[in-house]
Write a structure and sequence with these properties.
With about 280 residues, this protein is of the alpha+beta class. Helix content is about 30%, strand content about 25%. It has helices at about 1-10, 165-170, 190-230, 230-235, 260-280, and strands spanning about 20, 30-35, 45-55, 65-70, 80-85, 95-105, 110-115, 120-135, 180, 185. The strands form three sheets. The chain has a four-stranded antiparallel sheet with strand order 1-8-3-6, with helices on one face. A hairpin with a 5-residue loop joins strand 9 and strand 10 (about 185). It is elongated and about 170 Å long.
Length: about 280
């Protein structure tokens, strides 16, 4: 009966993007329980129903009240409390169910079944039905309405300004450094400019002198080479000697045929003809 009731409660209010479920018996190990160990540890969970059942053991004439309750986790008092008065009635079994208005699960504190008076509670069963909203936080699911694509993180870049560095400013302010105007052009003192001009003229004169000497040296070298290559001295030279005649003579002008070579040529010719006949199948 408990399972059937919870199934009907969940199916009657089912709609996307909600999923529904039910806890196990919260009072399985005793008459006091922590909701953190009963409910799933997820966000967007609401309690939408509660059902309990227990049996009382008592004398008919004894006064007895049973309280089934949950503390308010975010405030004082109770978020749920139901009292059954068993005074003047014999012990028996009772089952009750409650449809709750989707109260957030974070509001539900520790639960308990307590007794005022004389008597005891046995075979207690307490079950909570719940729903989970998958779009409780739209940013957790891109399929939820209201989901906003996260923007890339903004990188904080620290800009280093060299003109604010005390060490660099100290070097720039020293007398040994050059000075610059607002356009970034170097400011040259008159004395320095005059010294640079004299230095440039001296270097130019030196370069010209070296060039002149270099041209003169090349002309002298060429004339010395020309003197060494005078060929007139070879024109009147003579070589001692006369006419050189042949000393080797051929005594026999008639050379006999080489019979071995003739036989060899004939054998090769026969072999060639045999190969041609084999090629044409003869």
């Amino acid at each position: 009966m408990l399972a059937l009731y919870l199934a009907l409660l969940a199916s009657s209010s089912y709609s996307e993007p909600f999923t529904y479920g039910a806890t196990g018996n919260a009072a399985y190990s005793g008459l006091n329980w922590s909701m953190g160990s009963v409910l799933p540890s997820v966000t967007g969970l609401d309690i939408n129903g509660l059902i309990y059942r227990y049996t009382t053991v008592k004398n008919t004439e004894d006064a007895m009240k049973v309280h089934v309750s949950n503390l308010n986790a975010l405030g004082s008092g109770y978020i749920f409390r139901e009292t059954d008065d068993w005074s003047g009635v014999p012990g028996n079994r009772i089952t009750k169910s409650f449809a709750l208005g989707n109260t957030p699960g974070v509001n539900w504190g520790n639960g308990s079944i307590s007794v005022d008076g004389t008597g005891s509670v046995q075979d207690a069963v307490v079950v909570y039905s719940y729903r989970i909203d998958a779009c409780y936080d739209p940013q957790l699911n891109p399929g939820c309405v209201g989901y906003v694509k996260p923007a890339p993180p903004v990188v904080d870049v620290e800009v280093y300004d060299t003109l604010e560095d005390e060490l660099i400013l100290a070097v720039l302010d020293s007398d040994t450094n050059f000075k610059y105007d607002q356009d970034g052009n170097r400011i040259v003192d008159d004395d320095n400019e005059e010294k640079e001009t004299r230095l440039e003229m001296g270097l130019t004169a030196s370069n010209n002198a070296l060039t002149m000497l270099r041209v003169q040296g090349q002309a002298e070298i060429i004339n010395a080479i020309n003197l060494q290559t005078d060929l007139a001295m070879y024109y009147n030279s003579t070589i001692n000697g006369g006419r050189y005649g042949d000393v080797k003579t051929l005594t026999d002008a008639n050379l006999p045929d080489n019979s071995k070579a003739l036989r060899n040529n004939l054998a090769q010719q026969l072999l060639h003809e045999e190969m041609v006949q084999m090629q044409y199948g003869e």
